[in-house]
Records
---
Amino acid sequence: MSIVSPSATKPVRNRRNPEVTRASILEAARAEFAEKGLEGGRVDQIARRAKANKQLVYYYFGSKDELYKSALEATYAEIRALERELDLTALPPREAMVRLIDFSLEYLDKHRDFIRMLSDENAHGARHVRGSEMALQTNSPLIALLSEALERGVREGIFRSDIDPLELYVSIAGMTFFYFANGLTLSAIFGRDLTQPRAVRSYRDHIVKLTLAGLGA
Amino acid sequence: MSIVSPSATKPVRNRRNPEVTRASILEAARAEFAEKGLEGGRVDQIARRAKANKQLVYYYFGSKDELYKSALEATYAEIRALERELDLTALPPREAMVRLIDFSLEYLDKHRDFIRMLSDENAHGARHVRGSEMALQTNSPLIALLSEALERGVREGIFRSDIDPLELYVSIAGMTFFYFANGLTLSAIFGRDLTQPRAVRSYRDHIVKLTLAGLGA
Amino acid sequence: MSIVSPSATKPVRNRRNPEVTRASILEAARAEFAEKGLEGGRVDQIARRAKANKQLVYYYFGSKDELYKSALEATYAEIRALERELDLTALPPREAMVRLIDFSLEYLDKHRDFIRMLSDENAHGARHVRGSEMALQTNSPLIALLSEALERGVREGIFRSDIDPLELYVSIAGMTFFYFANGLTLSAIFGRDLTQPRAVRSYRDHIVKLTLAGLGA
Amino acid sequence: MSIVSPSATKPVRNRRNPEVTRASILEAARAEFAEKGLEGGRVDQIARRAKANKQLVYYYFGSKDELYKSALEATYAEIRALERELDLTALPPREAMVRLIDFSLEYLDKHRDFIRMLSDENAHGARHVRGSEMALQTNSPLIALLSEALERGVREGIFRSDIDPLELYVSIAGMTFFYFANGLTLSAIFGRDLTQPRAVRSYRDHIVKLTLAGLGA
DNA sequence: AATGAATGAGTATTCATTCAT
DNA sequence: GATGAATGAATACTCATTCAT
């Protein structure tokens, strides 16, 4: 009566080595959480995306929450790596500032998933970030880069001297983040499609203008 | 075992005040969704908060999603009402701009729930806003106020003339929104408590400075 | 705060007299139960169909089950009335038999609701019929008519004499009822649309042929 | 407080026999749906009958509707298997016809559940049958058997030649099905217990008589 | 007679997680 | 390391019925 005959070998599919399995689960988790958020993301779906057994998710990550933390860390690691590649020190202060704005805009434009994860994390009281050694330790190199560019500008007499680098960072991040994070709502309410590339470019010019003039000595 | 004292009658609802019942459910929903988000909010909990029978939630609002939409609309209605009270036309251009920034900061500081709902709504593709006549129709009066102040500033020769009001609005909203929306994460990562009133005041000065200088002719 | 001002008169809509209200609820119930069955039928929907207040359903009928019984009785009363109009005594035995078959087929074809109610009632162990004085008392006049026609046929030597009228009734009812009751399934399985008028006519001829020959002396 | 005695182990399912688990759920579903119908059947109850966790029902069958479809298919498969065993070709035409009638009567008499499911399925527009590859493909072998017996009868000059096999099948099925399907109602209304074995035998003789005479050349 | 508001027990379904191998 | 089967607690939503006026 049994469909599976006793002699039938189990479909052993574990061709991949552990690291690959783990990595594919993590990747699947990032995609899932970025799309659906922490609550909306499904462990089942993550396993399916990773083409792995659901139990493996628990074997490697312990729980959904831990997995989320790992996904968050991976996301942070990625952006930090890109930030580290930004060589602002090679650029004159104004160009450095523009470069920073462009970097921020481009990254967010291309990585909407980052926006979702960041929003979600804050909605949950930054619980995972706080519990993450990694996220806390490797803080953004941008502040240092920004500080340095700011100082050079001040020294050259083109930037005002009463600007706090962290506050500047937050305001630039805010202007760029909010644009993409709330783009859909803004577009709906104001009847103007802010997701169009043209609109993005125009907004970029606006921020650059505002910031450079704002920093002007 | 009973929490209720023997003499306590069952919490018979106010049968003559359906509006009150409806309003209390809506209020409970706003609180619940603001705390837990759309997915995290529980209909059961909303009913309990409103001291209403769970079925009443459905009786009055049809579904969790509709209820969320109603909560969102109520939230929008509230902020719009406040915005309408902002009499920027009575102020000189610079003061008007400062007033706007202050309003934005103060509102967000006091209404963290608004932040959560806005983030959540965007995470869900602005689905409810798009489906809401009300949210779409009564769009923010701020843009008009901002336009007017901007124009006056330009006429007076104190503001530059190449600023788009909507883009300015978005950038100001971004700077303020992001600060509160991501305050917890930022605080954790940078090891500096941005939620302290002092920090908020300092950031406020920063934005004002940056914006006014940025708009300067 | 109240939307309804105290002075606003209640929308008194009870223009109709009680009998009309009761009748419209009953009619709505018949339609609803015929479509959805006892379990599938919704009291809410019945009230809406009848444009009556839901509570009125209870006021007039006591419970959903009682209402179902009433609907069933109304359905029976209707078909019995039609049966009583059948004047088989005026027809020669063979024609009487054909008339009976045609009546049965036509009624079922036009009143699919009757089929649903009868099936449903049986699925529930004929519970309502058993509890209905009316359904039990006014039993079908068809048996008497059939008996009489059968006897005449026997006397005339054209019908065999060993036929029990009730059994004949059941077999004719079966042949006609089953055709419509299970028409959809039969059509699906045999890939032949039995609901087409042509198919119905052909089947009618088949039954007539089979029955008359079957009864033949 | 615990109902379970300390020594009683939790009913740990047979982890090595998923087929058994699946089968027991299916069996429980057939029983439940046959008794209560599609709407009346409770998933909870099915799980309990099968001594399985409720979630397993979903694990194996996806939804109540799919489960119903599977139950329907199992029921069809069973009757088809029996039909295939009917060796009408070995019998003379008249005997073949009688055999068919007896088979039909006996099956329905013993499997009241089949009647309920068939009625219910039709009440739902044959939705599940239409969506079932299996039900559509393995259509009844009876039609072929019946055709063959009919033809032989015609060739032997004992059956009339203008009989359509499908229509004959439907009329026989109708006479038998209706008897059991509506037996309770008929018994109640006519005050004659048709469920008694004696009554069944008598009705059987009636159908045989009617059919054979009806088919007579 | 009529009405809208309120209730409680149910009902299918989902989901993170663990077991046994 | 890997797998499929199993579990329990939730969760949104429904429905017949009753209350108070």
---
Amino acid sequence: MSNITLRDISKALNISVSTVSRALTDSHEIGEETKKLVLAYAKEHNYVPNRMARSLKVGKTRSIGVVICSIDNNFVAQMLDGIDQICTESGYQIIIMQSKESYEQEKACINLLYASGVDGIMISPSLQTTDFTHLKELQSQGFPIVLFDRTTEELTAHKITANNIKGAYQATTHLILSGCTRIAHLNSKSTLAITRERFEGYKQALVEHQIAYEEDLVKFCNTSINENTDENVATAMEELLKQKPQAIFTATDLLSTKALAYLNKHGYKVPDDLSLIGFSNSDLAPILNPPLSTVRQPSRQIGELAAQTIINLVKGKDIGPAETVLLDTELQIRKSSSR
Amino acid sequence: MSNITLRDISKALNISVSTVSRALTDSHEIGEETKKLVLAYAKEHNYVPNRMARSLKVGKTRSIGVVICSIDNNFVAQMLDGIDQICTESGYQIIIMQSKESYEQEKACINLLYASGVDGIMISPSLQTTDFTHLKELQSQGFPIVLFDRTTEELTAHKITANNIKGAYQATTHLILSGCTRIAHLNSKSTLAITRERFEGYKQALVEHQIAYEEDLVKFCNTSINENTDENVATAMEELLKQKPQAIFTATDLLSTKALAYLNKHGYKVPDDLSLIGFSNSDLAPILNPPLSTVRQPSRQIGELAAQTIINLVKGKDIGPAETVLLDTELQIRKSSSR
DNA sequence: TTGTAAGCGTTATCAC
DNA sequence: GTGATAACGCTTACAA
């Protein structure tokens, strides 16, 4: 198993290195005889090409960088699973880096990835990120970049994300149809499309059902890591609850579960006292107390599509101008919103 | 940002490539003047060394392979988080590969990682794995390997894992002290130490409290991916419940939540009808229905220690003979086991 | 069909 | 203290 090289093979078989190289890549300009010979020898001594040497030579590493906020997040892990599957199938290695919701760390990740020679980068920006020049710079050199899940209008690129407006709209509409009119909305604080779009869907549903929008029923709270999220959520919930809402629509996975925990802890009966519905991809939603109604995102599919897109870009395939792909969410009604 | 090389710097500054190289690695045999000059120029044009070239030359990639069952698993994600932190701090890149609980796929991962030149491998074997020759072969060539979380006696290596016997013992003892004598045990099917040790801890607690061990109260079920786990768990639970247990101790994260889901679905009141306690690292345990008592493992710490160990090995540090590090678990009593 | 040789960007071994 | 030069393992013109 100790590494054998092209030269070893060439010496053993008394043919040149280049012939061996070509034989192994099944070049048409090599005799069947020699091909078989080389292939056999290579297999027997289980030759495995040196990735570094190959990369150095051809200037491509067959690896792509993936930047996410945190690997320790159900939804993210599911997307990574999808990404990994596609990339492995296509012979690409992924290098995962976490921004931990920090803009500085995100830039550091990008630099590290670029320095380590990845052929392309897929990124779901941090909630802190408002400036995208670190990505624009790369792009301007023709470096392939794909945004997934979290997107922004600041950057022209291929983007794969859930249909956030529609998902939020459906969730809110569901609450309205169940008889709620005072519906609170808890969102995370960011300038990313994801935040605005879910807020947008919420407002659309209100408008459509002639319910006046009330600013006091909406809170955006800082959920960046290290930002004592529990406390921020508690404060936001406290203020929202003062407004006596009949229901709350939470816009992210983290907020949904933290809001439920808060309500349970403070003696609110869900859904008797108020309904709750949120974005969440946790498999545990059905056995939460109470079972949590959720907008579920096609996490694996987002990952798969994004991976396929970056691979196509990296391979130089013409996949047309940058476009945003919106994948439908799925409304899963459970007890937490059944009044 | 387009890559600048040593040669570019050497030309611009009219000094040799080797001088530049040495200046950048802060060699003591270079004049302070030139050092400053080179460093300044490098910074200004943000020179970043070519990883491939460096790796090819020195025969090390500063990357380590991490093999886990699935990234889409709370506990695993937490360990990965710990691993990532240590590796990033030490300037090592990690390459994560999933076995999906398949022995064949695990072997494929190992081969791919080895072929891609990682300096060492950390692995948490699949539940299917009983034969460890694929790892032994690597080891016999002096290739660094560390086992984490899931270990085996089949392999002599550095191992980092939770104190499974103690954790299981504590959980079972807790059930006994709460008044249960008919305690069922649901475990996963594997020959890994993790399975046997938790079973062992369960039995130890019984013995110590003079409770007779009953084979019918114990089930090992196949939780490999693709093995219709839900159905297997349902069958196992059905049979266990026929024995009218007063409590169930579930041995893995997956089994714990699936068991709870099963009980809820079939109208069992936990803890009134029976208590439940399980291994789980889900942050949602407190808001499950009912809040789930758990044995919590120091996931991040396991990852961190394992990462530190493999890095030490890779660096050739003498860290003594292979030993197993056992980290204490934490018993978290909640409503599901409060009678 | 096969061989020769250059070169990818580093680092290391010699010289000077 | 600095500079040539070879070498890591591979691919690829260009020759033969």
